[in-house]
Amino acid sequence: MDIETATRQLRAIGHDTRLQLYRLLVRAGPGGLPVGEVQARLGLPGSTLSHHLRRLVDTGLVRQDRHGTSLICTAVYPAMQGLVDYLAGECCADAPDAETATAPPERAG
Amino acid sequence: MDIETATRQLRAIGHDTRLQLYRLLVRAGPGGLPVGEVQARLGLPGSTLSHHLRRLVDTGLVRQDRHGTSLICTAVYPAMQGLVDYLAGECCADAPDAETATAPPERAG
DNA sequence: GCGCTATTTCCATGGATATCGAAACAGCTA
DNA sequence: TAGCTGTTTCGATATCCATGGAAATAGCGC
Description:
The structure is a homodimer. Chain A contains 6 helices and 3 strands; from the N terminus they run ααβααββαα. Chain A is α+β, with helices and mostly antiparallel strands.
């Protein structure tokens, strides 16, 4: 997990509609949901939804698989897990001794 | 932690410069760093840095305290902890049974 | 191939963000 | 008060982002 990937994923879910969308897919479970179903539940125009979905897919947080004419959207759990792990490990250590314990030596300075 | 706060915080760190900035403050520990020191380390113009810092302070991820003429910036650990907790709990449960545990009845089917 | 449903791309528009120089402001010291 | 250092606000510009209607594409069944 590099910092660039992290920021892109963070920005992807840093939007009300997209976070709701992602939550919906997470709760739908491994079976996922077709785009049309998501559209019906969130009440969004197709083009807008497609735009947001693309963003999530693009950053690896969501996967899409064809199933007939429908496109099934599924939350990619490991991706979010990796992001949470990154935040907790790299950024969220609640003590400065993390520098000597888990954090790599400061490269920037 | 409501979804609106979550998205705002996510968007705040969903930016390369701001995530680097936040990491820097986390690694600096509870003692924090003055703005000038951060500016020197990241090599940013003061106005740009101030803009980003304001964003982080505004969302509660960073705190600022006067110390003479310097302004000490400190990472607010509980804020990030809350965000990580929210992501892990609300969004990152790898099973649909989260619906029966915490989810509202949006289970239209 | 034709028609049907599901989904995306195209295009335009309005709004938010990022950037940074210049000037203003805050607090200390003499 | 004058002057110094540290930090923010002002102002302007370029860029990215969000939104959604209309047209195009993808796959299925006949």
